[in-house]
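ARCHIVE CARD
SHELF: 3
SLOT: left
DATA:
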Amino acid sequence: MAHPGTLHRYNNRLVAFEHASPHAPSSTEQSIHTILWLGGLTDGLLTVHYPATIAKSLPPTWRIAEVLISSSYKGFATGSLTRDARELAACVKYFQQLRGKDETKIVVMGHSTGCQDAMELCVGSGKEQVQLAGVILQGGVSDREAFTDIATRNGMKAEFNAIVEKAEKLVAEGKGSQIMQKEGNPVAEMLGSPMTAYRTSSLLSLGGDDDYFSSDLSDQALELTFGKWPEETPLCFLLGEEDPYVPASVVKQDLLDRWTKVVRKHGGTVDDVHGGLVKGAKHNLNDNPKEAVDELVRRVVGFVNGVESESIPGARL
């Protein structure tokens, strides 16, 4: 199936695909705002279907572009959130320059591990590189808890623990760039790619660089992430009501409420009118009922309308 749009080269090696809008072309790029969408582990252009549906429903002043970074497809296996945030910041700056930094609004929408990249950009190594008009975190789940749960249910908990311990040992020895073996490695086998010891530990260790969304993180840990959320950047959480990567023991709404409380405690804004649990939705919504996709799209459109009008309904504490 052909997907009309524009391919932007935002640096020498990386591109972003902007979906065509059903609306008539604007007379000036400066009147256009942009959602920069970033997928998760193994994702690339068009691997998740709902961005194309969002493109058809956005108001005339908005576009959505899918961002490729070095970690797209299987590149995550040797990457890091620091690299991802640096490349995502370069893409933000490209669209700001293209459409006028003082006029255009940029919203970053992360999906799955793309949510970690958005967090890294806003509160981690990428903070202060760019200023965003808003952030949407869709399907932000704990890789550590998800893979632990999958390994446990498949009788591979011992093998999983051994791989994590080996990765942590290699990182401690300064050998984080060493590639872990794929055979007997349940995570590498599930993802279809061997990973460096560093990325294995980052994704799967308690307190690893990717460990933003785990339900067992302490209040102190959340203070160092959500507690540093920039006040000028409204935030919207979207989580599938039936997301299979959240363990059954975790209450999804409690997760969202906990993160929201920390952001608001420090003066940030969370849109909990358009944010929240998406009824009938799983993780990436591929092959989900049309009603679930439509609800996700409605929430995204509602959030960006609020960003444009600077009237986000979420309250500060």
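SLOT: right
DATA:
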Amino acid sequence: MGIDMSYEQRGYHDIGGNPCHAGPVSNETAVPPGWAHLTDALRNALGDRYRLHEQRRKIEELGEDVYDSVTYYEIRVIALLEMAVERGFLTREEVKTRMAEITEGSS
């Protein structure tokens, strides 16, 4: 026996069965961006330092505006970053510095 919850009671990320939010599901095969596999590799590299429930919590904390404006893999990257900062693996400044280095190198 499941819990019957209205759409209003669910989190913004829980859109299953809600025809008003997501619209019809496409039958076309989605091709992930070239970097997408790196999100899974990073998660796997974290090994015992990574917990699925932490990533799920970080995804739920994104906020509806962010959640609705980014892709599946971008959501996971943001959640991994937030978890890594929270756990002290790296700082936001380190990420910003590295992103600037990468951007400069590609121009």
